[in-house]
Amino acid sequence: MSSSSSSSSSSSDEAKFHVLAVDDSVIDRKLIERLLKTCSYQVTAVESGMKAMEVLGKEIEGVNLIITDYSMPGMTGYELLRKVKGCSSLRDIPVVIMSSEDLPSRIDRCLQDGAEEFFLKPVRQSDVNKLRSHLIRRPSSAVAAAAEAEEVSSLQPQQQQNCRKRKAAAVLLEESCGLSSVQSTKTIRR
């Protein structure tokens, strides 16, 4: 798995947006990663839809947008889109599809099923500039985990036990979306 983060900072609030880039082609993955970093995005780049789901299971709170190739072995970008939009914990994350094939039926299907944009490869800087309007702000997972720990520690022992039981139940529910138990904590606080 190729994973990297941008450490450059900007005075802009938006400099910390985290984009998950998914492409089986090393060349295309490096290109999109470079373009995203030029816009000061934090980037995690992976080579498959399955790796993307692993990242989402670990970093759901930190991912603000997914940009994925359409045609990949194993889980395609379209299948990744459907998984993300079909999971209650992920569906708010915007997904952008990229493809080297200009097929109107493919483009329409992706947009109808929840993709925010469909870019033709090679992706250009002007395409990446369009992403800013689709990014969502999520609290950092460290901040969310600290807030949750503080909330739970302030409860009575019986309430703490109930929280642990709810968390375990949430884990079972979230497994159907392919997420780790760490992400289930957000759903039990409601």
Automatic annotation (TrEMBL):
Keywords from the UniProt entry: Phosphoprotein, Transcription, Transcription regulation, Two-component regulatory system
UniProt KW Cell cycle keyword: no
Sequence positions bearing 4-aspartylphosphate: 69
Entry annotated with the keyword Transit peptide: no
SMART domains: REC
Top-rank taxon, per record: Eukaryota
Any Gene Ontology biological process: phosphorelay signal transduction system
Stored Gene3D superfamilies: 3.40.50.2300
Matching InterPro entries: ARR-like, CheY-like_superfamily, Sig_transdc_resp-reg_receiver
Domain Response regulatory: start-end pairs: 18-136
CDD domains named among the record's database cross-references: REC_typeA_ARR
Family annotation (PANTHER family): TWO-COMPONENT RESPONSE REGULATOR, TWO-COMPONENT RESPONSE REGULATOR ORR4
Protein name per its UniProtKB record: Response regulatory domain-containing protein
Species name: Cuscuta campestris
